[in-house]
Structure formats: structure tokens, C-alpha cells
Specification:
The structure holds two protein chains of two kinds. By secondary structure, chain A is mostly beta strands. Helices cover 0% and strands 53% of the residues of chain A. The chains are: A mainly beta, B mainly beta.
Chain lengths: 114, 113
């Protein structure tokens, strides 16, 4: 069975700093997709970034980028120039190419401090 | 607005009761997924429907059931409610599978007292 582990339950950083959220996953498959979702206090789940496992190039979306290490089964999220609006719960997630359901980690609560 | 509509936003009910949560997927999406978010369990997959047919079941209790109607909206029925069923229930939709991620609704907060 596939699992997603986020080892940092909670983190705090100062505004404008760079922060990295960790995620590891376990699978014996080679074709899959990885995601980071953001859940702000409004509780809406928002897709932040997506990575295709067959692509070596790390995905980037504005201030958000990932460090995808397939051999290590690691998928970390880097937030540059953090902003107060980045305060949220962040979930790492995984789905196999042939499987419709997405498996989520338990989340990292990120606080951006003014 | 994500395009996925969930009603009601909040629900308070007593133990032993039955409730129905409703979800309308984003226009054009055929897949609907239900997830339960508890404080200590993260998001747990419950069930997936595609174009009216059940495609996959997760850790869904026998007291829970769901269906997707011809107009593609979906309902999650929770019966014989227990205190431990209190959670945030999310509906999400996608055009087909999860390859591009889901679009989530804003959730229904269920409180069982």
C-alpha cells in the first residue's frame, strides 16, 4: 500500500524567509503523480503544485518549487519570500497513474510570522 | 469559488441520527470523490464515483453510503451517527482520474452531539 509521510507537524518562519516542508512517500510503482495542497483557515483545499514522476525536472509555480528525489522517495516543497497569506496547513499527496484516488499525508501546519 | 458546491456548510445533529451531504461537481467533471478530514487522521478517502458508477471504496463505514445521480451530483449518507463521526467532509471532482489533482469543495462541517 502507498503511504505519504510528513514529518513536520508544525513550523513557523518569519515573513520574507524561505521555508522547506518535507514529505516522503512509499510505493513500489514507478509511474505516479505527486502534489502539494494548501488548506488556509478558510479550509478550502487548493492545489499548489504538481509533479509527474517520470519528469526529472522539478516543478515550479511562482514562489513555490519542489525538490523531487525519486530514488529517495522524497518530495519537499520550498516556499520563497514567504508571505502572511501562506499561513495554512500544507498536505503532500500522491496518486498512481492507474489509480484514481489521491492519498494525503497528515499535513504540516505552517505559520508565517510578521 | 472552486466550482464544486457542497451543502450544507455546517450541520449539527444528535447521535443516532441520519444526515445527507450533497455535492455538485465542477461543470464537465464526471468524477466525484468523498473525503473525511478528522483532526488526527488527515484526509481519508471514502469513495469515488465516475459518471454514476462506484469506482473505488476506501475506509468507508457500513453506516455510510453514497451515490451519484444522472445529473452527476452526489450525496453522502451518514446514518446511526456517533460522536466520532464529527469531522469535515470534503467532496472533490475531476474530469476523470486524479492525474491532475482534484478540485475541492469548501466542505461540510459535521458536528455530532
Amino acid at each position: 500500500a502507498q503511504t505519504v509521510t510528513q514529518s513536520q507537524p508544525e513550523m513557523s518562519v518569519q515573513e520574507a524567509e524561505t521555508v522547506t516542508l518535507s514529505c516522503t512517500y512509499d510505493t513500489s510503482e514507478s509511474n505516479y503523480y505527486l502534489f502539494w495542497y494548501k488548506q488556509p483557515p478558510s479550509r478550502q483545499m487548493i492545489l499548489v503544485i504538481r509533479q509527474e514522476a517520470y519528469k526529472q525536472q522539478n516543478a515550479t509555480e511562482n514562489r513555490f518549487s519542489v525538490n523531487f528525489q525519486k530514488a529517495a522517495k522524497s518530495f519537499s516543497l520550498k516556499i520563497s519570500d514567504s508571505q502572511l497569506g501562506d499561513t495554512a496547513m500544507y498536505f503532500c499527496a500522491f496518486t498512481l497513474v492507474w489509480d484514481d484516488k489521491i492519498i494525503f499525508g497528515k499535513g504540516t501546519r505552517l505559520h508565517i510570522l510578521p | 469559488d472552486s466550482g464544486v458546491t457542497q451543502t450544507p456548510k455546517h450541520l449539527i445533529t444528535a447521535t443516532g441520527q441520519r444526515v445527507t451531504l450533497r455535492c455538485s461537481p465542477r461543470s464537465g467533471d464526471l468524477s466525484v470523490y468523498w473525503y473525511q478530514q478528522s483532526l488526527d487522521q488527515g484526509l481519508q478517502f471514502l469513495i469515488h464515483y465516475y459518471n454514476g458508477e462506484e469506482r473505488a471504496k476506501g475506509n468507508i463505514l457500513e453506516r455510510f453510503s453514497a451515490q451519484q445521480f444522472p445529473d452527476l451530483h452526489s450525496e453522502l449518507n451518514l446514518s446511526s451517527l456517533e460522536l466520532g463521526d464529527s469531522a469535515l467532509y470534503f467532496c472533490a471532482s475531476s474530469a476523470a482520474g486524479g492525474d491532475y489533482g482534484y478540485t475541492f469543495g469548501s466542505g461540510t462541517r459535521l458536528t455530532v452531539v
